[in-house]
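Example record used in the benchmark description.
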Amino acid sequence: QVQLVESGGGLVQAGGSLRLSCTASGHILRTYTMGWFRQAPGKDREFVSAIGRSGGPTVYADSVKGRFTISRDNAKNTVYLAMNSLKPEDTAVYSCALDIGPDNVASRPSAYDYWGQGTQVTVSS
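Model output (structure tokens):
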């Protein structure tokens, strides 16, 4: 079993930055593809970004390209999401996820096997 814990959420003004972290613990046999998803009130969960087991490839949703950067530190079992130029529409609960399957860096939520509890990101206008 694997547990994921996110941190780094908070309240920022539009144009500001936040850096989210997600640390995995438990039955970890190797590195895995990991991704970030977000869900705003009344909306479906949407893909944000994903990263392969060795730091690449990286995949981004069109809505965050050029503003968000995903990275990882495998020695710490941690994945990061650096968010810049934040917009009010980025407001959501951000969750990280881990895929124990093939390293295809999927954007589909169904590809991921373990999920964190989420961290709130609020961007004020």
